[in-house]
């Protein structure tokens, strides 16, 4: 039945959902400390390569417009980018400061989610990772200083990751595979969401119409100024405050909110091919314009101060050029490592905090490439949001517990680390 469930998610012979093999024994590599007392990088260039035959291929995420209006609904367990999250547990969402940028206090914006079930235990039959970030580059630069702090409780982050998992038998979804015909329905409704961002739980309500809910006063204010002031009906002729807005109102609010969100895409997962190198440095079939990539590469190369960074960047570019449209690299395997664009700014094992909930080690699971910003329509200028890569680390045992959304750890590497790696 598990194979049947996963088979219902495959949308073509060349594409696949994330098929995760059981974890191997915990990596026993010890942190190496040299005579100066410095901890070696998390990646050891001198480490012996393991045999590739026993490894799962790297899963590459490419963005596609959804085939149908219902393709990215939560009951279909999608991997998606932009728009609003398809919450796995639709009731017990993150709340409070978890939803905010710790630096500026603004609600975080949804970037993407990856449906990544694990087969080794029942509680991870459904499992999704959610990535959020502040859209301010100023906050991201400050975030660079924060991530080097060894005490995770004292870190102020502008990039946050949440992990949610459910057993096959749960109160939200059928135990049968989705039919993917537009007729699938969740077993229960979700929480009322913010009428502006459509992302976080709407635990505040408009005092006028008492129909539209918000996650924060900031989103209530911006929605009021953007037009809700003219459409706000007196509470005496609106619905009861305890009821969610009707479907028409929700669609109207979502249309307003969607102007501030990144465009929505489905993430299709393909296997990385080791010997598939495209012509013209891999840019012929890319949706990203060659001129823009050339400008970005030139700017990045100019920012690198040492030969090691340039060497790393050349190797990174060669690997990425095999599938230039990739925006995500997924590889949850024992000893898996990110593909680092630069040699500077890489974490040591000690820089990756242990799981806050069970104390187990965290391991690399996936990374996000800056190409995604092109699809999101982010401007390519010096003040715009940008990074070299975002590497996501999750609990090796994918621990259970009463908290529905457990916060994991993201390591952000930007193009130039010269001013951000003060430790």
TrEMBL record:
Residues 194-232 form the MYND-type domain. Keywords: Metal-binding, Zinc, Zinc-finger. GO terms for cellular component: cytoplasm. GO terms for molecular function: zinc ion binding. Residues 16-59, 169-188 are annotated as: Disordered. It comes from the Eukaryota. PANTHER family: PCDC2 PROGRAMMED CELL DEATH PROTEIN 2 -RELATED (PTHR12298), PROGRAMMED CELL DEATH PROTEIN 2 (PTHR12298:SF4). This is MYND-type domain-containing protein. It comes from Solanum lycopersicum.
């Amino acid at each position: 039945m598990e194979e049947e469930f996963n088979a219902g998610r495959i949308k073509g012979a060349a594409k696949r959902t994330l098929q995760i093999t059981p974890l191997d024994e915990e990596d026993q590599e010890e942190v190496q400390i040299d005579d100066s007392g410095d901890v070696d990088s998390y990646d050891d260039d001198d480490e012996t390569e393991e045999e590739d035959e026993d490894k799962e291929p790297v899963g590459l995420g490419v963005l596609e417009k959804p085939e149908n209006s219902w393709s990215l609904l939560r009951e279909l367990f999608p991997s998606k980018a932009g728009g609003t999250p398809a919450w796995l547990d639709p009731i017990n969402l993150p709340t409070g400061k978890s939803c905010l940028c710790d630096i500026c206090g603004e609600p975080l914006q949804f970037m993407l989610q990856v449906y990544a079930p694990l087969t080794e235990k029942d509680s991870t039959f459904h499992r999704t990772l959610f990535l959020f970030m502040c859209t301010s580059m100023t906050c991201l630069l400050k975030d660079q200083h924060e991530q080097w702090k060894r005490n995770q409780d004292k870190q102020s982050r502008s990039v946050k990751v949440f992990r949610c998992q459910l057993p096959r038998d749960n109160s939200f979804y059928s135990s049968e595979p989705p039919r993917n015909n537009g007729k699938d329905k969740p077993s229960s409704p979700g929480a009322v969401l913010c009428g502006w961002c459509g992302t976080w739980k709407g635990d505040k309500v408009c005092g006028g119409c008492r129909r539209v809910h918000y996650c924060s006063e900031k989103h209530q204010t911006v929605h009021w100024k953007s037009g809700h002031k003219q459409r706000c009906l007196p509470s005496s002729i609106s619905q009861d405050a305890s009821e969610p807005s009707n479907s028409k109102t929700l669609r109207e609010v979502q249309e307003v909110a969607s102007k501030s969100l990144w465009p929505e895409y489905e993430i299709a997962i393909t296997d990385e091919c080791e010997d598939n190198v495209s012509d013209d440095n891999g840019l012929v079939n890319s949706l990203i314009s060659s001129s823009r990539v050339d400008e970005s590469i030139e700017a990045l190369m100019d920012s690198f101060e040492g030969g090691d960074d340039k060497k790393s960047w050349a190797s990174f570019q060669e690997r990425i050029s095999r599938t230039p449209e990739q925006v995500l690299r997924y590889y949850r395997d024992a000893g898996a490592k990110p593909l680092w664009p630069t040699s500077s700014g890489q974490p040591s094992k000690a820089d990756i905090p242990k799981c806050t909930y069970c104390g187990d080690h965290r391991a690399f699971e996936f990374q996000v490439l800056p190409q995604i910003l092109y699809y999101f329509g982010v401007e390519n200028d010096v003040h715009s949001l940008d990074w070299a890569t975002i590497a996501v680390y999750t609990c090796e045992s994918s621990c259970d517990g009463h908290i529905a959304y457990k916060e994991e750890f993201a390591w952000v590497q930007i193009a130039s680390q010269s001013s951000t790696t003060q430790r």
